[in-house]
Specification:
The complex is a heterodimer of chains A (482) and B (522). With 482 residues, chain A is of the alpha+beta class. Helix content of chain A is 29%, strand content 26%. In chain A, helix 1 (19-33) crosses helix 10. Chain B has 16 helices and 25 strands. Classes of the chains: A alpha+beta (482), B alpha+beta (522).
C-alpha cells in the first residue's frame, strides 16, 4: 500500500483540500509552477461559458494564462473540451449511442424512465440475460448503481430501491460484463494513466470480524488523500450485498482470505486503486482512445472500461474525470496526469515545471475566501519557476520586540524570496527563505545579520531547508510553549 | 475631549480594524466607490516609509482609475517630480504669484557661498532637506548665521542630506488642505504633540491618558506618542520633566514637529481659512502642470493674515480629514470619486440600512505577504427589498454540520452576514437579504429539527459582505486568563502592602512583642 505522497507533493500542500478540490488543485498547481498566471473565480460565468457541473462548485473554476493565451478550467476539464461533449459525457445513454454507432464495444443494454411500466422493463431486461447492472443515466460516483443482478426477484427489488432512494428519472439496464474494472485517462492519442479498481474489500486475519476489518481498512484509507474521504461505508448497499452472499458483519474470515463487500468497483464507494498503466494491453488502450475520439469535442477524458482478457468494453466516459486516483493510487506507481493535461493545453511550457516540487500556494485559504463570497476573483502571486534552493537561518541577539520580523519580511519580498519568519521561544528568530537563484538565498544571510535599526544581531546560523515552501513571505505565530 | 468631533456616518462601523491607521485612506476611497457599484481590484503592495500600501484600481465599464494610496494614475510624472522637490514647487508657485516663503536651494555648502546666498533673507530662518519626508530634518527658529551654519552641518553630517533648502520662517499655524479640481474639500490645523495640564497629573500620566484616546481613534489607531530623547529635550527647554505637574489649562509642547504621525493633533479648520487663501490653494495645485489634486501645506497667521504655501503632497493621507480630534470630518472620498467618476454621483446602491462593508483582511493577510497578486472585491449587493435580521437559535448538533447548513442557505439565498457561536450550542446570525427570502429562511430554521428556540430581531447595524463565521465562545478561556491575571495582580498588591507594613516603623517597634508571643506559644 502506498503511504505518503508522490515526490512532487506533500501533506502540507494538500492540507484542508478534499475530494474534487484536489483535482482542481493538482491541475492549477502544475500550470502555476510552470510560470503561468493563475486566477480563481467566484462566478466563472462572468468570464467563460465553460460548463460547470456538480455540487459544491465554488473554488474549482480557474484560469491559467501566459501572455495573451488563457485557458479556463473546471476541475480537470479545460476549455478544449466542448460543452456539448461534457453534456454527452454526463448522459450515459447518449454516450452509449455515440459509441455503438462507431462500433466501440459497450455492454448491451437499454434506457428506461420512471414512468415506464416495471413489467415491460423486466421483460426487456430478461432478454439481455443475467447478470445485469442497473444505473441512473445521469448519475456519478457510483450512486444508485446496482451490480451483480442475477435473479428476476433481485432485479425487481433493485428497480424499486433505485426509484425510492434516488431522485433520478432515467436509468440504464445493461449486461454485466465480467472482467477487471479499469479507469483510463486519455489525452488525444495517448493513454496517460490507467488504474485498476477493485470493489471494496478486506482481507481476513482469522481473528477480526468483517466489521472490525472494515474499521482497520478505513484507518489506512484515511492516510491517503484520495481515499481519506472515501471510506468503506457500512450502508444498506453493503449489508444487502453481504446478505446475498450469505455473510454478516460478524463473520470472521480466515487469514489471507479477501472478502468483497460491494458490487460496484468504485473508489468513491470504498474500492482500492492499483496503477496498471504499463501493464494495459495495446488493444485495450486503443479502444479507450477511440472512445474519446468518437465523442465530438471531447479531446481528453477519463474512460471506464471492463477488461476481459484482450477484450475491453466501455462502461462510461467522464469529461470531468478525477485525476487524484492516478496521483494517489493505493498500490502502484503514482502518475502526474496534471502534467499531461498542462502539456496538452500549454505545450510550449513542457518540462518547465519538472524541477518545481517544493513550491505551492495555499489553496485551502483561497477556497475559504471564495466560499465565504468575500472575493469575486483573485490571482495567486507568481511562482518562482525552477528548482528551489532554500535556507533556514536562526538569528540570535536582540532580535525580538525590535521589529525584526516585519523588517525581514520587507527585505524578503523585495528580494523576491519566499518563506516565513517566526519568533522562537528561546528569544531567537528563525527565517526560512527560498528562491531559484542560490545567490539570493545565500546573500540573505548578510541581510539577517544587518536587521532593522533597533536590532542587535550576534549570530546567524544556517541550515539547508528541503521541505515545501508556500508562495509569499509571512510572519508566522510563535509556537506555544505547552 | 469627549465628542468635540463629528465623523462621517457612512464610516461608522464599516471600517474593519485591519484598515485602521494609514490604510484608512485607501479603504475609505475604495469603499466610497464600491457603494456606488464600481468594481475594485487590489494589487500588489509597494513600500512607503516602511508601510505596506496596496495599489488598487477602481473601474466601471468605460472608466478606470488606478490609485496608489490616494493618488490616481492621472497625476503626471512631471507633477510628482515637481512636488517631491520643494525648490521646484516654490518656483512654480512663485511664478503664479502665490505666496511662498522666500528662500533657496543651496548650490554649495561652502561657508562663503552660504553667507552670500542667504544675505537677502531675514532671520529667523528654517533649514530643511530638499527631498525630506515626514518632517525629518526640518529645523526651525534659526536666529543667526552661526546657528544656520551649525544646523546645515548637522543635516549634512548627521542626517546625510546634501541637498539643503534655506528659507524664511513664517509665523503662524500649520494647516493641511485637500484640494481637488476647483475646491478645497477639507482642511485641518495641526497642533504639535502636546498635553494640557489639569493641575493634578504629571506630564507622563497626561501623555498616557492622551495615548489611550489616540490609539482608539481609527485615524491614529495604535499610534502612541512614545517618550523619547526628543520629548525629554523639548520638556527640558521648557523647564519641565516627565514628572512635572503642569497647572490647569497649561499647554505643554512635547515636540517641535507637527506631524500627526509623530503625535500631533488634527483639528478641523476648513472654515478657518479665508476665501482668498482657499482660492490660492486651488491655484497652487493648478500651478503644477498635470497635478489635479493634492494635499497642500500652508502656514497661516490669523492675527496678521499672512500666509505662505510650503509644499504640496501628491499622495497625502486623508485620514486626518476623516478623523479630526476636534471639529467635523469632510467627505474627501466622495469628492475624489465624484471627480473621477462623475456619472456615479449620488448613485449609491443602498440608501437604506443595513450598511454593507467589505473586509480588509485580504490585504494584510494575503497581498501584503505576497501570497496573492490581485484581489477583486465582490460587487456591492443590490437588493431593493432589503431586510436585515438578527437571529438566535440553539442546536446540539456538531458545529460543522450547523455551519454547513447555514452557509449553504446563505449562498443559495444570496445573503450576506455572519454566524457567531456564542457558546457551545448557542448561535447568533446577522442576515441581510431580500425580505421574503429572510422570512422563508426563518421559517426554514424554525421547522428544522436540528435547531431550537429560533428567535429574531430587527437589525440595522453594519453588515460585512459574504459569510463570516466567528467563534465567540473562544473568548471564554481568554476571559479566564484575564481574571487569573487580575487575581495575580491583587496578590502582588497585597504582598507589596504586606512588605510595606513589615518595613514600617510600627512593625519594627512591635517586633520584640511578637518574638515573645512566639516563645510563649512554643
Amino acid at each position: 500500500m502506498n503511504k505518503g505522497y508522490p515526490y512532487w507533493l506533500s501533506k502540507q500542500m494538500l492540507s484542508g483540500v478534499r475530494r474534487f478540490d484536489i483535482d482542481a488543485f493538482l491541475v492549477a498547481l502544475e500550470g502555476w509552477r510552470r510560470g503561468l498566471s493563475l486566477k480563481f473565480y467566484y462566478d466563472p460565468s462572468t468570464v467563460t461559458d465553460l460548463k460547470i457541473i456538480g455540487y459544491n462548485q465554488i473554488g474549482k473554476a480557474f484560469s491559467l494564462s501566459s501572455g495573451d493565451k488563457t485557458h479556463y478550467f473546471y476541475r480537470t476539464r479545460g476549455d478544449k473540451v466542448s460543452n456539448e461533449a461534457t453534456d454527452i459525457g454526463t448522459d450515459k445513454a447518449r454516450a452509449k449511442e455515440y459509441l455503438m454507432k462507431a462500433n466501440v464495444p459497450t455492454p448491451g443494454g437499454f434506457t428506461f424512465n420512471k414512468s415506464m411500466d416495471i413489467d415491460s422493463v423486466v421483460n426487456k431486461a430478461l432478454k439481455l440475460g443475467f447478470p445485469l447492472v442497473l444505473k441512473p443515466t445521469l448519475g456519478s460516483l457510483g450512486k444508485g448503481v446496482v451490480t451483480d443482478i442475477n435473479t428476476e426477484k433481485y432485479l425487481r427489488e433493485s428497480i424499486s430501491y433505485c426509484y425510492s432512494e434516488f431522485d433520478y428519472e432515467e436509468f440504464i439496464i445493461e449486461r454485466h460484463v465480467e472482467g477487471e474494472d479499469v479507469r483510463v485517462y486519455v489525452i488525444k492519442d495517448e493513454v496517460v494513466g490507467a488504474i485498476k479498481r477493485t470493489s471494496a474489500n478486506v482481507t481476513g486475519d482469522g481473528k477480526l470480524t468483517l466489521d472490525e476489518l472494515i474499521d482497520h481498512k478505513n484507518e489506512q484509507r484515511r492516510l491517503n488523500p484520495q481515499t481519506s474521504t472515501r471510506l468503506i461505508k457500512k450502508d444498506t448497499g453493503l449489508t444487502n450485498f453481504l446478505t446475498r452472499h450469505n455473510l454478516t458483519l460478524d463473520y470472521i474470515p480466515e487469514k489471507g482470505k479477501t472478502v468483497y463487500l460491494k458490487g460496484q468497483s468504485n473508489i468513491s464507494s470504498g474500492g482500492d486503486s492499483v496503477d496498471t498503466t504499463d501493464e494495459l494491453s495495446h488493444d485495450v488502450k486503443k479502444t479507450a482512445i477511440q472512445a474519446v475520439k468518437e465523442i465530438p469535442g471531447l479531446n481528453h477524458a477519463g474512460v471506464d472500461l471492463i477488461v476481459n482478457n484482450e477484450n475491453a468494453y466501455i462502461i462510461e466516459i467522464n469529461s470531468t474525470a478525477g485525476i487524484s486516483l492516478h496521483t494517489f493510487p493505493v498500490h502502484g506507481k503514482p502518475r502526474n496526469i496534471a502534467k499531461d493535461i498542462i502539456d496538452y493545453y500549454f505545450p510550449e511550457t513542457k518540462g518547465k515545471g519538472d524541477n518545481s516540487t517544493k513550491i505551492y500556494f495555499d489553496y485551502k485559504n483561497i477556497l475559504e475566501l471564495l466560499r465565504s463570497n468575500s472575493v469575486k476573483q483573485l490571482e495567486v502571486s507568481d511562482a518562482p519557476v525552477g528548482e528551489l534552493y532554500a535556507k533556514r537561518y536562526v538569528i540570535s541577539g536582540k532580535v525580538q520586540k525590535v521589529g525584526y520580523r516585519r523588517w525581514i519580511r520587507k527585505q524578503a519580498i523585495e528580494n523576491g524570496l519566499h518563506g516565513y519568519t517566526r519568533n522562537l521561544n528561546n528569544g531567537k528568530v528563525v527565517v526560512v527563505v527560498a528562491a531559484v537563484e542560490k545567490d539570493k538565498v545565500n546573500n540573505f544571510k548578510r541581510t539577517c545579520y544587518e536587521g532593522p535599526e533597533r536590532a542587535e544581531v550576534t549570530n546567524v546560523k544556517e541550515y539547508l531547508w528541503d521541505k515545501q515552501i508556500r508562495v509569499g513571505f509571512e510572519i508566522r505565530k510563535q509556537k506555544k510553549k505547552f | 475631549m469627549d465628542n468635540e468631533y463629528k465623523w462621517l456616518p457612512e464610516l461608522e462601523g464599516t471600517v474593519p480594524k485591519e484598515a485602521y491607521g494609514y490604510a484608512i485612506s485607501n479603504y475609505a476611497i475604495a469603499y466610497e466607490a464600491w457603494r456606488r457599484g464600481l468594481n475594485i481590484t487590489f494589487e500588489k503592495v509597494y513600500h512607503n516609509r516602511g508601510m505596506f500600501i496596496p495599489k488598487y484600481t477602481i473601474y466601471s465599464k468605460n472608466n478606470k482609475v488606478q490609485f496608489s494610496h490616494t493618488r490616481p494614475h492621472l497625476v503626471s510624472k512631471q507633477a510628482i517630480k515637481i512636488c517631491v522637490n520643494k525648490q521646484l514647487t516654490r518656483e512654480a508657485l512663485d511664478k503664479e504669484n502665490i505666496p511662498v516663503p522666500k528662500g533657496m536651494l543651496l548650490k554649495s555648502l561652502d561657508e562663503t557661498y552660504i553667507k552670500k546666498a542667504t544675505s537677502g533673507l531675514n532671520f529667523p530662518l528654517v533649514v530643511k532637506p530638499l527631498n525630506g519626508r515626514g518632517g525629518r530634518g526640518v529645523i526651525t527658529g534659526i536666529d543667526d548665521f552661526v546657528e544656520l551654519k551649525e544646523n546645515i552641518q548637522y543635516l549634512k553630517n548627521e542626517l546625510n542630506f546634501d541637498q539643503i533648502i534655506v528659507e524664511e520662517y513664517i509665523q503662524g499655524e500649520d494647516y493641511r488642505a485637500f484640494v481637488i479640481g476647483d475646491k478645497v474639500v477639507g482642511a485641518f490645523r495641526r497642533l504639535p504633540p502636546h498635553v494640557i495640564g489639569d493641575g493634578k497629573n504629571s506630564i507622563k500620566k497626561l501623555m498616557k491618558s492622551k495615548n489611550d484616546i489616540r490609539v482608539k481613534i481609527p485615524g491614529t489607531y495604535n499610534m502612541r506618542v512614545i517618550i523619547n530623547k526628543e520629548i525629554k529635550r523639548e520638556l527640558r527647554k521648557q523647564n519641565y520633566t516627565l514628572n512635572s505637574v503642569p497647572s490647569r489649562g497649561q499647554f505643554v509642547r512635547l515636540k517641535t514637529k507637527n506631524n500627526v504621525s509623530s503625535g500631533g493633533d488634527p483639528i478641523d479648520a476648513t472654515d478657518e481659512l479665508p476665501e482668498e487663501i482657499k482660492n490660492n490653494l486651488v491655484k497652487a495645485v493648478k500651478a503644477i502642470p498635470g497635478l489635479i489634486q493634492g494635499g497642500v501645506d500652508v502656514i497661516y497667521d490669523k492675527k496678521t493674515g499672512r500666509y505662505a504655501i510650503l509644499e504640496i503632497n501628491t499622495k497625502p493621507s486623508i485620514r486626518n480629514h476623516l478623523y479630526p480630534i476636534k471639529g467635523n470630518a469632510h467627505e474627501i472620498p466622495k469628492a475624489i470619486i465624484d471627480y473621477y467618476f462623475p456619472e456615479t454621483k449620488g448613485n449609491y446602491l443602498s440608501k437604506t440600512t443595513p450598511k454593507y462593508y467589505f473586509d480588509y483582511l485580504f490585504v494584510t493577510k494575503y497581498i501584503r505577504n505576497n501570497r496573492l497578486e490581485k484581489f477583486t472585491l465582490p460587487p456591492h449587493p443590490y437588493e431593493p427589498n432589503l431586510d436585515s435580521k438578527l437571529i438566535s437559535f440553539k442546536s446540539n448538533k456538531e458545529l460543522t454540520r450547523v455551519k454547513q447548513l447555514i452557509r449553504s442557505t446563505f449562498h443559495k439565498l444570496k445573503f450576506n452576514g455572519e454566524m457567531n457561536l456564542i457558546r457551545s450550542g448557542e448561535y447568533e446570525l446577522i442576515v441581510a437579504g431580500n425580505y421574503q427570502d429572510i422570512d422563508f429562511f426563518i421559517d426554514k430554521l424554525r421547522s428544522n429539527r436540528l435547531l431550537s428556540e429560533v428567535q429574531f430581531y430587527n437589525y440595522a447595524g453594519p453588515v460585512r459582505i459574504g459569510f463570516t463565521f466567528n467563534n465567540k465562545s473562544m473568548s471564554d478561556p481568554l476571559r479566564l486568563i484575564e481574571e487569573n491575571e487580575n487575581l495575580n495582580k491583587k496578590v502582588k498588591q497585597l504582598e507589596k502592602e504586606l512588605n510595606q507594613l513589615k518595613n514600617s516603623k510600627s512593625w519594627k517597634i512591635t517586633s520584640p512583642l511578637r518574638k515573645l508571643k512566639r516563645k510563649r506559644e512554643k
